[in-house]
Amino acid sequence: MTSEHPFEVLTNAHVTKDIWCMTCHTPVAAQIEPGQFVNIAVPGDASHILRIPLSFSAADAQRQTLELVYAVVGEGTSRLSAMRPGEVSTMVGPCGRGWWLPKKSGRALLVAGGVGLPPVVACARMLARSGVGFDAIVGSQTSDRHVEFLLDELRNMPPEQGCDCARKVVVTTDDGTRGIHGFPTDAMAGLMADHPYVQVYTCGPLGLMGGVARIARKRNVACQTSLERMMGCGFGACSCCNVELVSGEYALCCKDGPVFDAEEVAW
Amino acid sequence: MVTKSNVGMDVDLGGIAMRNPVNTASGTFGNGRQFEGFYDVGSTLGAITCKGVAAEPWKGNPVPRIAELGGSAILNSVGLQNPGVKEFVRQYGTYLQGLRDKGCAVICQVAGHSVEEYVRAMDLFEELAPFASGFEINISCPNIAAGGAAMGATPQSAAGVMRAVRGHTKRPVVVKMAPRDVAEIGRALESEGADALALINTIPGMSIDVRTRRSKVCRPTAGVSGPAIHAIAVRMVWECAQAVGIPICGIGGISTVDDAAEMILAGATAVSVGTANLYDPTVAARIVRGLEQWASEQGVSHVRELIGAFEC
Questions:
Q1: For residue A223, which of A121, A200, B66, B162 is within the disulfide window of CB 3.0 to 4.6 Å?
Q2: pLDDT tens, B176-187?
Q3: Choosing from B104, B108, B141, B218, which is the catalytic residue?
Q4: How many domains does the structure of chain B reveal?
Q5: What is the distance between the alpha carbons of residues A22 and A15, in angstroms, rounded to a whole number?
């Protein structure tokens, strides 16, 4: 059940470009599932009242630690990056509905763009724990905006049992400075031609996720997508983070998502 | 931990019996259930006011519906997304009856685009919602194309809605007012049989993204709320309280115990915590405890002695 939890910053370090990584100690780590998020009260400026919703890349239930990789994009994340080890505040969580395992048995394809990568890494961990094989495509604007340690984690997660196929982690850059020159969608066709995936998982910019969903649909592969919205509460109380569905109705990103079946979303 | 005082805290909001003065503002508290992970709503609050519901489902406004403004304010334009009375009762009826059973009043908010729609929603509520302690008529939503704030814009139009719904329920009717002409409109509502008034709704405002030249939310104008509007709300509650004889529920930027106490001193019988619920989800429970402490420190035997006790 969504509740308010204290947290204490353990580390909060600059990673690359505008990207930071915070680890913190918090009891919510023992409850949170991959793809769910927390809504963080960031101290330092009482005149900005809303919390900052962030998904996580790793949660350790035993140690009660959470790893948050985030981009400094505005005033709130800028204050978050200024939090020092030992500082305390609160986070609301676990929020929303996270990733679910593929309904069919088989291999999954993960497609991440930019700071959509952290929840995709959490998803990969869920798959690895459950013995589901996966490949990944990770895109960023330029070579030094890739989060190297998360790419390593994707490569180094234990392989699925009884499968001798090597995991592929394909890197793309918008400007061609590393890996495939283009968007992650440009790398999808090649991988999908070689592997009969049963599930695609995607998180990144909206345009990318829409493109990923279209390709998955064309190939008749199920697709889960983690959406982002400006949020008020993060737990379904204010109805501010609406997501239009194919049915014509609105769902709430914070409660019904952030992970949706891509088929249900009106892209 | 606050020591148990002997100060009476129960209040009567126009026939709605509340164990303490703390209510929640419609649209900021879901329908209560969303807060059960934070505290036991039914055993804590004086009342909750549910999200506005119309006779038929409303889709609400497109994305984006909310923007952080800085300066302790947010801008919202939800547009009263709701599933209609029947579905609302199906989803929340049992839960809300549970709140009543625990001693928390349940105020159902009634929305409409026209006088006829308010009446139709009222009739459905009357038939399907035995759990409602009373109703709040929303004539002040700034985020819908028809009805809402337009209905509450003049004493005549506000009175027209009140006159129309009055004959359709015997339960207490509160009217949620827009932040304008509150003395005059309050008097008009009182004369048409309103049992209580709730004010203020959000203040119409604008915020423009100067790079894209577009509104930060889905419509050009939307509702401003948050601590920034508190002083304006206190002034309006004070003005209205001097003009009417019916009780007032004070709303607007309440985020601390002192904010709530101020409203009571300005003349509010009850207070609704609104926007603060979104970013500080346990705040209403803390205000319940804090108000009792404040009343005790003021040396009164009952919080009612502090209503309108502002000394100018």
A1: A200
A2: 999 999 999 999
A3: B141
A4: 1
A5: 10
